[in-house]
TrEMBL record:
GO cellular component, one term: mitochondrion
GO BP terms: cell redox homeostasis; cellular response to oxidative stress; glutathione metabolic process
Entry keyword annotation includes Cell division: no
InterPro entries: FAD/NAD-binding_dom, GSHR/TRXR-like, Pyr_nuc-diS_OxRdtase, Pyr_nucl-diS_OxRdtase_dimer, Pyr_OxRdtase_I_AS, Thioredoxin/glutathione_Rdtase
PROSITE patterns referenced in this protein's UniProt entry, alphabetically: PYRIDINE_REDOX_1 (PS00076)
PANTHER family membership: GLUTATHIONE REDUCTASE (PTHR42737), THIOREDOXIN-DISULFIDE REDUCTASE (PTHR42737:SF7)
Purpose: Catalyzes the transfer of electrons from NADPH to thioredoxins TRX1, TRX2 and TRX3, which in turn act as reductants of disulfide containing proteins. Able to reduce nitroglutathione (GSNO), a compound involved in the transport of nitric oxide (NO); however, TRX1 is more efficient in reducing GSNO. Has no catalytic activity towards oxidized glutathione (GSSG).
Homology family: Belongs to the class-I pyridine nucleotide-disulfide oxidoreductase family.
Protein name: Thioredoxin reductase
Gene source species: Paramecium octaurelia
Organism domain of life: Eukaryota
Length: 486
C-alpha cells in the first residue's frame, strides 16, 4: 500500500461539523485533509460539498418554508387593503427550485474556496478506514489512494431511513434527499412520519398549494412539548393539511401515470388512496456502515451511531467523531459546527473547552413556527416532580393578526417552565411567527441561569410577540392562559 499524503488531521465528511473542524484545525497550523463524497439517493439525486444542511436540509427547507409563507402573505395583503393581489396565481415549482439550487451551488463553491484558501486538501472521494491511522480514498471511477493521518475525525452525518416491510420501497418513494431537487412539482403528496422533517415538509408543500397528507404512526413531534405539538396540528389542519392519524403504510404500488396507490392500516381498518408522490420521513440512520469501523475497533451502538466520550473520542484513541453520526448528540447544524471547532481547538490550539449540550435552542419551521429551549413539560415532570416546577402559560394573538380575519386567535402559545425553589427558567416554548428569531436571544439568558424574576424585570419591546415571554403571569393548572388586552 502506497501512502500518497500524510496529515496531522484528516476529516471524513464535508458537512456542517467536518468543514468547521477542518477549517479551525488549519487555522491553528495543522496540516489538514478532508474527504467528502455524496452517495446518490436510491433515485439518483446527488449534490455538492457542504453536507446535509446545505444541500438537502436546513437551507433548502427554510427557503421553501419562506416561499410557502410568501404565498400565504397574499391573503394577508388582501385583508391589509391591497387591491390587486392575484389569489388565483399558482406556484411555479421550477422557478423556486431553480433559485434554491442556484443558492446551494453558490454555497458549494464557497466551501470549496474556503478549504482551498485555508490550505485544507480536499478529496472528492469516498473514505473508509484502512487502519487506525490510514484512510482509503476511492474516487467515482474506482481509483484508489491511501493517506496517513495522526488524528482522524469521522463526521459522516446520516441519511434517511425507510420502513422495512414494504417491498422495493426505495424505488417507489422520495425522501428529503430528493424533495428539494425534484425536477417537477410533487403534486398530491403523502408524507409518512410525524417528526419535524415530516411536519416541516408537509407544511410547506401545503403552503405552496400541493395537496398534502401526513400519516402519523403514534404522536407528533416525539420529544417536543406535546401540548404545543397538538396546537401545531390544529394550525396545520386549519391551513389545509390532512392528518391520517394512528396509521402505517402497508403497501405502495406504482400505477398508471406514474402515480402511487398507497394502502394503509388505521386502527385495524385498511384504507387506500392514490398520490403523485410519497415522501418518507421516518427518521435517519447514521452513515457509518461502509467505514470499516469494526475492523479498526471503533465501537458503534446497534443503530450504527458511534459511541464517543464527552471529548468526542471514539474507542480508538486517535479517532474522533462529531455530529449526526454520534450517539446521543442533538442532530442540529450549530451543535455539529461548535463541536468541530472546539475539538480542533483542543487538538491543535492547546485549549480545553468542551462542548456544552445544555439549553440548546431549536426551531421547528412548521407553518406556525415553534421555537424551544430546555425541558418540555413532559421532560420536566419526568425529571423533577409536578410540585418542583411551575409552568407559566399564555395563549396570545400577535398584534398584526388583528388586521387579518383569516388567522384564528387561539393559535399562538408561550410556556415557561420554572423551578419552584430557585425560580430558574428551565424550559421555554414559543409557538408563533418568527420563532427562530424570537427564541434565539433567550437561550443566552437561560445559559446564564436566568430566573423568572429576571425575565419579569426585563423590559419588553412593544408591540412584539417576543415581549409576551417577559410578561407571563398565568400559572398552568390555576389561571386561564388566554391573554386579554394589547
Ligand atoms: P452532514 O452535514 O450530514 O455531512 C456529512 C457529509 O459526509 C456528507 O456530505 C456526506 O456525503 C459525507 N460522507 C458520508 N460518508 C462519507 C464517506 N465514507 N466518505 C466521504 N464523505 C462521506 N439542523 C438545524 O440545525 N436546523 C434545521 O433547520 C435543520 N433542518 C433539517 C432539515 C432536514 C430535511 C434534514 C434532513 C436535516 C435538518 N437539520 C437541521 C439537521 C442538520 O442538517 C444536521 O444536523 C447536520 O447537517 C449534521 O452535520 P454533520 O456534519 O454531522 O453531517
Ligand atoms: P425522527 O425524529 O427520528 O422521527 C421519525 C418519525 O417517523 C416519527 O414520527 C416516527 O414515529 C415515524 N416513523 C418511524 N418509523 C416509521 C414507520 N415504519 N412507519 C411510520 N412512521 C414511522 O426523524 P426525522 O426524519 O423527522 O428527523 C430526524 C433528524 O433529521 C432530526 O433530528 C433532524 O435533525 C434531522 P414514532 O414517533 O416513532 O411513532
Amino acid at each position: 500500500m502506497q501512502i500518497t499524503q500524510e496529515f496531522d488531521f484528516f476529516v471524513i465528511g464535508g458537512g456542517s461539523g467536518g468543514l468547521a473542524a477542518a477549517k479551525q484545525a488549519a487555522s491553528q497550523g495543522a496540516k489538514v485533509g478532508l474527504a467528502d463524497f455524496v452517495k446518490p439517493s436510491p433515485l439518483g439525486t446527488k449534490w455538492g460539498l457542504g453536507g446535509t444542511c446545505v444541500n438537502v436540509g436546513c437551507i433548502p427547507k427554510k427557503l421553501m418554508h419562506f416561499a410557502a409563507l410568501a404565498g400565504e402573505l397574499r391573503k394577508d395583503q388582501v385583508e391589509a387593503g391591497w387591491i390587486n393581489t392575484d389569489m388565483q396565481g399558482k406556484h411555479d415549482w421550477n422557478r423556486m427550485t431553480e433559485n434554491v439550487r442556484n443558492h446551494i451551488k453558490k454555497l458549494n463553491f464557497q466551501y470549496k474556496n474556503q478549504l482551498n484558501n485555508q490550505e485544507v486538501k480536499y478529496y472528492n472521494k469516498l473514505a473508509e478506514l484502512e487502519k487506525s491511522n490510514i484512510v482509503k480514498l476511492v474516487d467515482k471511477d474506482g481509483g484508489v489512494e491511501f493517506i496517513k493521518s495522526k488524528f482522524i475525525l469521522i463526521a459522516v452525518g446520516g441519511r434517511p431511513s425507510y420502513p422495512e416491510d414494504i417491498p422495493e420501497i426505495e424505488k417507489k418513494v422520495i425522501t428529503s434527499d430528493d424533495l428539494f431537487w425534484l425536477p417537477n412539482n410533487p403534486g398530491k403528496t403523502l408524507i409518512v412520519g410525524a417528526s419535524y422533517v415530516a411536519l416541516e415538509c408537509g407544511g410547506f408543500l401545503n403552503g405552496l398549494g400541493y395537496d398534502s397528507s401526513i400519516m402519523v404512526r403514534s404522536i407528533l413531534l416525539r420529544g417536543f412539548d406535546q401540548q404545543i405539538a397538538g396546537k401545531i396540528e390544529d394550525y396545520m389542519v386549519e391551513s389545509g393539511v390532512k392528518f391520517i392519524n394512528e396509521a402505517i403504510p402497508i403497501n405502495i404500488e406504482v400505477i398508471e401515470n406514474n402515480r402511487r396507490l398507497v394502502t394503509w392500516k388505521q386502527k385495524g381498518v385498511q384504507h387506500s388512496d392514490t398520490f403523485d408522490t410519497v415522501l418518507i420521513a421516518t427518521g435517519r440512520k447514521s452513515d457509518t456502515s461502509k467505514l470499516n469501523l469494526e475492523r479498526v475497533g471503533v465501537k458503534t451502538n446497534k443503530n450504527g451511531k458511534i459511541i464517543c466520550t464527552i471529548d468526542d473520542r471514539t474507542s480508538v484513541s486517535n479517532i474522533y467523531a462529531i455530529g449526526d453520526c454520534v450517539e446521543g448528540r442533538p442532530e442540529l447544524t450549530p451543535t455539529a459546527i461548535k463541536c468541530g471547532q472546539l475539538l480542533a481547538n483542543r487538538l491543535f490550539g492547546g485549549q480545553k473547552k468542551m462542548m456544552c449540550y445544555q439549553f440548546i435552542p431549536t426551531t421547528v419551521f412548521t407553518p406556525l413556527e415553534y421555537g424551544c429551549i430546555g425541558y418540555s413539560e413532559e421532560e420536566a415532570i419526568n425529571k423533577f416532580t409536578q410540585n418542583e416546577i411551575i409552568i407559566y402559560h399564555s395563549i396570545f394573538k400577535p398584534l398584526e393578526w388583528n388586521l387579518l380575519e383569516s388567522h384564528y386567535a387561539q393559535a399562538c402559545m408561550i410556556k415557561l417552565i420554572v423551578m419552584a425553589s430557585t425560580r430558574r427558567v428551565i424550559g421555554l416554548h414559543y409557538l408563533g411567527p418568527n420563532a427562530g428569531e424570537v427564541v434565539q436571544g433567550y437561550a443566552v439568558a437561560m445559559k446564564l441561569g436566568a430566573t423568572k424574576e429576571q425575565f419579569d424585570a426585563t423590559i419588553g419591546i412593544h408591540p412584539t410577540c417576543s415581549e409576551e415571554i417577559l410578561t407571563l403571569t398565568a400559572v398552568k393548572g390555576i389561571d386561564n392562559p388566554q391573554k386579554e388586552g394589547c
